[in-house]
Amino acid sequence: EDQVTQSPEALRLQEGESSSLNCSYTVSGLRGLFWYRQDPGKGPEFLFTLYSAGEEKEKERLKATLTKKESFLHITAPKPEDSATYLCAATMTTDSWGKLQFGAGTQVVVTP
Amino acid sequence: DADVTQTPRNRITKTGKRIMLECSQTKGHDRMYWYRQDPGLGLRLIYYSFDVKDINKGEISDGYSVSRQAQAKFSLSLESAIPNQTALYFCATSEPGQRNTGELFFGEGSRLTVL
After folding, report:
1. Are A50 and A58 in contact (CB under 8 A)?
2. Which residue of A72, A98, B25, B42 shows the fewest CB atoms closer than 10 Å?
3. B43–A4: do the CB atoms touch at under 8 Å?
4. DSSP characters over B68-83
5. Range name among A40-49, A74-83, A87-96, B60-69 with the lowest pLDDT average
């Protein structure tokens, strides 16, 4: 069964304390792996797409990496404004773009 | 103004009532989606439409129906609402096929409570 699992469920960080979020996927064939950010009361906002193992993408303090079984979202020297729920999602090769299978998310709180 | 607008933002209704959630977009995208978000379960796809004449069921379509009234409008209906349809509903859009990178553009959500 195709599945996307995120860990941990919640993460509390001090400002400047770097950490990583994990997204493991078991899908028959991966077309794309996505990371989204979701603020309370808002819709998810796109961060990255990764297409193949070994690929890395960066945006400000965030860096996403992909292996054949999992993806990591590294948060370097986080600031309070990085507090959000981070969602991982995957599209299988048998599906069309837009048909995403989401993980449950990791809620990140960064305290000053 | 938001590119993807959902109405209503919040709705409380009773079991058995018919409910319609509406979505309109100004992004000019052909592809539109309805997702449902439940705590601990992530977002799940209900229905999607790649153009006005193309509507497809997603992972959890039972108890829901949709209407694509125009390129810019995609509505989700609950014919007879039940309590386990209490959730946060999101509409999303994406670029058409050849320009599609998989990125979805989400509305701000419609919170539905069924008593």
Report:
1. no
2. A72
3. no
4. EEETTEEEEEESS--G
5. A87-96
